[in-house]
C-alpha cells in the first residue's frame, strides 16, 4: 500500500493539532507546519517551522518536504488569525495581518505545491468560516480575509480541474479552541461548536471516496450542515 502524506498548516494547537492527530491515526505521514512548533510526538509526524506569510520560508518548507516525499495526497489550509474589533478601531496593520496570514499565506502554500500534486488524488481542504458567507459585526478584517480565501479556492478549482485535484472548503462558526483564550475576545462556550463536532465533519470529508465531492460545508447551530 502506498504511503500517504498530508501537509497541515497551523498545527501548534487547536484544530490543526487535532487534525494532525486524526490523520496520523488514519495512517498518513503528517507534515505539520507552524511558526513555533508542534508538541506532537509520533514517528510519522514531521514538524517544520515556517512563517507562511514569507514566500521564501514556504519555498524552504517545500525543500524540506522533498527530502521525505515527492507527492502530497492531502493539503489542509488551516493556519489563520482571528481578532475582534469594530472597523473604526481596527488598525491597518491588524487588517493587513489578517490578509497576509489567512489569504496570502494560503496563496504561498498553494502556489508552491504544484510539483507535489498527485493527479486525481490530491485533496485540498480549506478551513474557512461561516463568516465568509455572511459578514458579522466586529470581525470585518477576519471576514474579508475568508471571503477572499474562498474566492481564491474557487478560482483554483477551475485552474486545476484538469489535474483532478479535489477541493473541500469547511466553513464553521466559532469553535471552542485556545484562540478564545487570547486577548480580549469573549464568547460563551455554550454558543460554540465543540472540537469533536468539527472533527466529525472533517473525518467524513477526508474518509470519503474520491468521487464524492464536498465543495462547501457550512456549519450552523454548532452542527455541520452539508451544502
From TrEMBL:
<keyword id="KW-0560">Oxidoreductase</keyword>
<dbReference type="GO" id="GO:0016491">
    <property type="term" value="F:oxidoreductase activity"/>
</dbReference>
<dbReference type="InterPro" id="IPR002347">
    <property type="entry name" value="SDR_fam"/>
</dbReference>
<dbReference type="InterPro" id="IPR036291">
    <property type="entry name" value="NAD(P)-bd_dom_sf"/>
</dbReference>
<dbReference type="Pfam" id="PF00106">
    <property type="entry name" value="adh_short"/>
</dbReference>
<comment type="similarity">
    <text>Belongs to the short-chain dehydrogenases/reductases (SDR) family.</text>
</comment>
<protein>
    <submittedName>
        <fullName>SDR family oxidoreductase</fullName>
        <ecNumber>1.-.-.-</ecNumber>
    </submittedName>
</protein>
Amino acid at each position: 500500500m502506498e504511503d500517504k502524506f498530508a501537509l497541515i498548516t497551523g498545527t501548534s494547537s487547536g484544530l490543526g493539532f487535532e487534525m494532525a492527530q486524526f490523520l496520523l491515526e488514519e495512517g498518513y505521514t503528517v507534515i505539520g507546519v507552524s511558526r513555533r512548533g508542534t508538541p506532537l510526538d509520533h514517528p510519522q509526524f514531521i514538524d517544520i517551522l515556517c512563517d507562511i506569510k514569507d514566500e521564501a520560508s514556504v519555498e524552504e518548507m517545500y525543500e524540506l518536504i522533498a527530502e521525505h516525499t515527492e507527492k502530497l495526497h492531502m493539503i489542509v489550509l488551516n493556519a489563520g488569525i482571528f481578532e475582534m474589533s469594530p472597523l473604526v478601531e481596527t488598525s491597518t496593520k491588524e487588517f493587513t495581518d489578517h490578509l497576509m496570514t489567512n489569504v496570502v499565506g494560503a496563496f504561498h502554500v498553494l502556489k508552491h505545491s504544484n510539483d507535489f500534486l498527485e493527479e486525481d488524488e490530491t485533496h485540498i481542504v480549506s478551513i474557512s468560516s461561516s463568516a465568509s458567507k455572511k459578514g458579522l459585526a466586529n470581525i470585518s478584517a477576519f471576514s474579508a480575509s475568508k471571503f477572499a480565501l474562498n474566492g481564491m479556492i474557487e478560482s483554483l478549482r477551475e485552474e486545476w480541474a484538469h489535474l483532478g485535484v479535489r477541493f473541500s472548503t469547511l466553513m464553521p462558526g466559532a469553535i471552542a479552541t485556545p484562540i478564545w483564550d487570547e486577548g480580549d475576545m469573549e464568547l460563551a462556550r455554550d454558543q460554540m461548536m465543540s472540537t469533536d463536532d468539527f472533527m466529525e465533519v472533517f473525518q467524513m470529508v477526508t474518509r470519503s471516496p474520491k468521487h464524492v465531492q464536498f465543495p462547501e460545508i457550512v456549519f450552523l447551530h454548532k452542527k455541520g450542515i452539508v451544502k
